[in-house]
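fyi for ur records
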Amino acid sequence: MEDVIYTVAAFNKEIKSLIDDSYKEIWIAGEISNLARPASGHLYFTLKDKDAQVRCAFFRGVGTNRSTTVKDGDAVHLRGRPSFYESRGQFQIIVKFLEPAGEGILRRKFDELKNRLYKEGLFGQMHKVQIPTMPNCIGVITSSSGAAIRDILSTLKRRYPITNVLVLPVTVQGDEAAPQIVRALTVANKNKNCDVVILARGGGSLEDLWAFNEELVVRAIFTSNIPIVTGIGHEIDVTLSDYVADFRAETPTAAAEATTPDSSDLIKIITSLNQRLKNSIEYILQSHSQYIDSFSIRLRHPADLLYAYRLRLHTIQSHHIFSFKTGVQKNEIKILKLHQKLNSLSPKPIVEKYQMYVNNISTSLVLTSQMLIEVQMNRLSSASARLRALSPYHTMHRGYAILTDGDSGNLITHTNTVRSGQKLRAQIADGSIESIVNHVKKRSDQMVVPNIKSPEKTPHKDE
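which gave:
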């Protein structure tokens, strides 16, 4: 087989084709070195570990997550496409995404958990409750030794010194932080003395604040019956606890301010209300004074009032006596007229007239009823006689019988329905006779009807 001789350009092109076909995008972890920032805005650097290194190019405008603070010695994760620069015969990585090594993993975990909890509805506004404006007791969950607790207590004392403060100390960083925060929230809810709870800590990296992104902490805040205000880190620090809390403050100090009214504002409000109260009292006193003055002008001596009332009473008394006598006379005349009218309208003659009418009708009704009963009795007797004459039982007493099939009970009316050996039943006046047919003989026109002597008439059970 003859050896193939490549040109440099052809060989580099084939190498590039092999690399492009074999790899799309990959993740690589390493340390940045030989970082260059030319005027074009691109970044060129070497990504290395203890065993190897590779050249990388991060072009301007590629990806929105590029860090402007990246420097030599930074451990990073990058996502890029392996490539081969043909003109120089140089292998390199075309970078699409760059992030710090430790924070990158946490950031992706943060985004995944955030999206899942968002879909469950834990961040919905409908679950938020209003923060009380003047709480009697404020719970504070934070580290007992950090700057956050000092800032919160000093702010509460300055703004609202009359409130009670319940401090629930916890670890705010590390593996034990999340379980301690959950236990503190549980204690605050069981205590039932706190009107609102502040969950706070100072600033830090994403890893430092990770306890406040743990799912068990987020769900404990969501299920809390007490309003939760978060003041975690600085303004740029946002945790999942901030999303689920009823109110998110930018700092621990801002959280303390969000849960309390300013005492100076309260003093201004109280002073204003006090002045309004004084003005209202003065207005009421002045109005009543004028009202009393108007009545004092119309006030008369008691003796004059007594004489006027006595005179008025005498007039009313005379009027009532006259009215009473006049009314009595009118009623007597009215009663007399009614008595006369009652006598003229006495119902006695009318009652006697209708009593005679009722007696006549009663007598006529009795006679008519007796006649109708007699007519119906006669009709009933005649119908009974006709019924006895037509009854088959009456005919049987003259020697006739009803012949039926012994098995089926069908009535025998013609000889063509009878066969030899057939069982027959003959119904007579006082019972029935069963027989077997020996011979069937049809009647001829010259057949003589036998002279049957009628038996003695016996009384029928219906007679």
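The chain has a mean pLDDT of 84. thats all i got for now
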